[in-house]
Amino acid sequence: MDTLTLPDAPWRHWPGLDRLTGALGAGNARVVGGAVRDTLLGIAVSDLDIATPLDPQEVMRRLEGAGIKAIPTGLAHGTITAVSSGTVVEVTTLRRDLTTDGRRATVAFTDDWKEDAARRDFTMNALYADPETGEIFDYFGGRADLAARHVRFIGDPLRRIAEDHLRILRFFRFLARFGDSPDAESLDACTARANDLMALSRERIADELLKLVVAKDAVRVIALMLERGIFRPVLPEIVSVERFARVGVLEAQAGLDPDPIRRLAALLPADAAIAEAVGARLKLSNIQRKRLIGATEADLLGSPRSAAYRLGREEAIDRLFLFDANGAVDAARDLTGWDIPRLPLSGGALIQRGLSKGPDVARALRAVESQWVEEGFPDAARLGEIADAVADQALRSSSSE
To answer: Residue 181: what pLDDT?
Structure first.
């Protein structure tokens, strides 16, 4: 049988990688998972994971002996972070699962490559390659599945899901990113065990969901998830992909990258209470929650530029796209290239016009800003005229009291 090898790729020439693999010794280092998969697909690689039959203490000893920084980031699970000439690589000892509870596993170290591969999730993620020669090691047909864009669990899908319930969402994310058609047995297993998602931390669900919604084939896959009832246990608010699909089209037409919070908002009803509940349930950051809630409002507060000034650029585009405003694509393109200005006037300028320090200045400054925004951010000369008029009005009101 011919030996299968990886094509050349930039990561294979990263500084310090050869020194790292040399320190581990011949046959003791194989790149595994995403880097191999993505290299075969022609996708740029930014992270490297190396598997080794050496136990963690021996990995530490060899790396430090070669002058390579070794950080025991996950020693109990066999993971060492190696820093070699600026290149950062995760080095993990081959493992097998002893016990699992759907959220975490107790592992034992092994020197059996196939045993390590068997505990991984999908066949396309269980590909190994020698970083020097590029030779590929494929124990479960992952290369054929990758070529066919076939996302398939290793072995029994129900067992893989029982080991880690998050694999249900990962299956659909990988399907949206890499797959053309779902593996029938894997899809049925995810459908049957969808309620297992309730046992997961909401942070893990949120992390996986926000990756899923920006995947290239997210519309088709999320429609499939709705059909199979996958969201019902944890996000029953998601009932349609119609608005989600429209937002994706608008983003593409405007030349914008998919935005995860905007796309999540597009999956939810335009209801502030629902957005607030979902944001809290998923334990999104305060900034993300605020934006999710703001995306339920259609009001642009004037022109698109005024919305960007008052709300922020992304929030303004959210409202343009989510409520399909007239000229949304052109407005989004304009906002993308527009430097949002700051009001070039201070309270001191109004004091110089005769106003007294305190609430009067604050009110007048807000009035100046409001008119400046309403007029489309005119130049300094016009801003001075606005300030003069507002100050005069404030002084007249004060003297008549």
So the answer is: 84
